[in-house]
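For the sake of transparency, this paper describes our internal protein records without simplification. Because each token names a local backbone shape, the row as a whole describes the fold. One such record is reproduced below, unchanged from the form in which we store it.
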Amino acid sequence: MNREKQLSAASGWVAVAILLPLLLLVVALIVAEARSGDVVAWHIIALALLAAADGVCLGGLFVVNPNEGQVLQLFGAYVGTAKDPGLRWANPFYTKKRISLRVRNFESQHLKVNDIEGNPIEIAAVVVWKVVETAEACFEVDNYENFVHVQSEAAVRNLATSYPYDAHDDKVTSLRGQTAAVAEHLKSEIQERLQKAGVLAIEARISHLAYAPEIAAAMLQRQQAGAIIAARQRIVEGAVGMVEMALERLSEKAILRLDEERRATMVSNLLIVLCSERAAQPVINTGSLYQ
């Protein structure tokens, strides 16, 4: 595996200050030799070769922008990466490839997949990423930008098949319910896939989540029914607890003593009142309690 090596390239301004005046001087000498009556051919040839060599050396100049790296190679061999911004000079025979180190983001396509329960859903995600290893990004994969897009979409598909779309139990992780946990899972899975390309996944979050159109209406009814059942369960649990507390308080303070039959009647009445969707309508009994 190719690992990044940072290369400290020489200042390009120093190279310009040395090579450019030398090139102009050599050109002037060639012109002077050509205009003189006593022309010596090998003088002109030597000066021309010197001018060509000086021009080649000027070809070693390159620019490094902020948050950018220039990957340098010599006849196919990786030499290093220049990251210091500004005008730089290196061996003119080095080939240079520009790699952006800036933070980038993209939104995946709306993918149609099945969740863990087999329900078809549509899902998309936004991924924020940057290159941190220029050598791996350049040499380990063919096209690191396309690699990021394809692997991110594959991670989103795998995420969708790992969780249900929705769950009424807070202890069950779902795509719609626990967004923070799902986002962390997506980020870690994308990072695992992009590690070999020298890319860091900074953030990944679901940007679109919905049931597929063909089952959207049916799943909406199912969601409503599930929500009603979950609400009823919560109401019953709370009502039982309140009845239990009421009976314990009555017994502790000796406010009222009830036999088993009247105790059962009170429990039934309290449960009806607490579980009813409407407010209780009081009935005043003007006779005996046992009438």
